[in-house]
Amino acid sequence: MTAITLNISDYNKLKTDLAGLLEKGRQQAQEVLAEVANHTYWKVGRRLQMATDGTVRTESAVLFRRLSSDLGLGQSTLYHTLQFFRLYPNGLPRSPSVAKLPWGKQVALLSVPDQAERLRLRGIDTPELNTPAGKKARSFVEGELMQCPFVVIHSYKTDLYARYIADLLYDPALEDKNAVFEKGHFLNQKLLDAGLALPMPS
Question: What is the C-alpha to C-alpha distance for residues 155 and 22, in angstroms, rounded to an integer?
Answer without folding.
Answer: 38
